[in-house]
Amino acid sequence: MDSTQALLLPRSDGVVPGVVDFRGGPASRVSTGRWSAAMFVLGVEIAERFAYHGVSANLISYLTGPLGESTAGAAAAINAWSGVATMLPLLVACVADAWLGRFRTIVLASILFVVVKHGHADPLLGAPGVPLRRLRHLHVALQNCTPSPVQVAIFYVSLYLVALAEAGHKPCAQAFGADQFDQGHREESVSRSSFFNWWYFGMCSGTAATTVISSYIQDNIGWGLGFGIPCLVMVFALAMFLLGTRRYRYYTSTQSSPSRASPGPSSRSSEAPSRATTPSSARSTGRRSAACCGCSPSGRPASSTRSSSPVLHVLHEAAGTLDRRIGATFQVPPAALQTFISLTIMTFIPVYDRLFVPAARRFTRMSSGITMLQRIGTGLVLAMVAMAVAALVEAKRLGVARDAGLVDQPKVALPMSLWWMVPQYVLFGLSDVFAMIGLQEFFYDQVPDALRSIGLAFFLSIFGVGHFLSSFLISAIDGATKKSGESWFANNLNRAHLDYFYWLLAGLCAVELVAFLVVSRVYVYKKRVSHHDNNVAVM
Is the pTM of this model over 0.85? Predict the structure, then answer.
């Protein structure tokens, strides 16, 4: 029986329609997919987060340290790189959905991660082959070395190769994981909605681990070892992902199984009989498209307010001026503050999934508790509050610097505890639980089934637009404020005015929230099969 015949089989608990196994035959519902398969994909995603954040989490410290760039220049470079990393998935997802397949794309992206991370083991990055007792001395010496143009060029080429690997991995891995649940099956449909919560939980686990481990190693031992550990983790995760090959479900409309050629036009069109479009859904296509365009600015970055990315690079620079001591000798790395975002997410996701959703379901009669757009809107409100809190804390920091007479001594730690910055990081985490997960599910669920990788790539692209706008905004503000006095992003952060920047972002958050509410009122959800269990709609 070939895959085309499998598509025409009636839906049952024996065979999953429209899906093949790793041999290219009909996929058994019992032996393929569901959580047992999704866990392999989740494992490689945790490792990918560890590898990616091993570069990005402490990147501004590397640019302003060994590379000797200014704070504003480093922030602009990071925003440009982050923008490319979140725009490239649009191109790579098209290749994956139309030709290569999600499985192969994940494997190739993982291999590229390993190759690039291994390539970071050069003298400029910390010489990970040096014995540990000498590595600390080399790390200190490298802080005062000026890199050659060739070394800088190699570094940036490697950095953008990481962006390419991220572009292949990010949308395809999440879509491939969600593909392991059949939306036409009652129990699996509910599990798929829960999958997005636990997917983000896994992502944050990897982020928290790399923020604590890699940031400390990079700051105190060496950059090469800090980059080398994520490389080893990625190798192990890739091996584990390949071990799950027999368990995966492969949708013939978007990808092939490992043992078959990539699907041609006939296999892509063969899913049409099982995905008939009703007249009402056809009439709503234009409204859905307009709503998706409206959701782009609502994703925070379109107004430079993707709070958990460009702003954090500036926030942890400011954190470096505070008293970071724990005990007599231990210094908390500034980038480690990002751990509070991950810890908040990891704490609140189980609460959301196991307590909030069941409680909300009693009132809304929806399996997800609240709609995707309601979830996104709640996250936008929390992001606005987080930026206001960040502005107030920064104003407090500047006041402490003035009162202590340390305005012109930026290298001296201020008599203000690092813990003052924790509340805004917690709010960023709560915002992500609502907005980020809601956006991921929205862009997976509300696109045609054959374009799910592209849908998640569009989700990433809204943050790419935000990074580019953020880079432009920082450069424009830096140039304008330099002409009238001290720059908002002065290298001496005690004379900068990051608080003004945060208030600007809070205002932009308010504007985009209004725009989001207007667009949400006219949005029409994609129609699909519903099931009812005890009067609860599974949508």
Answer: no
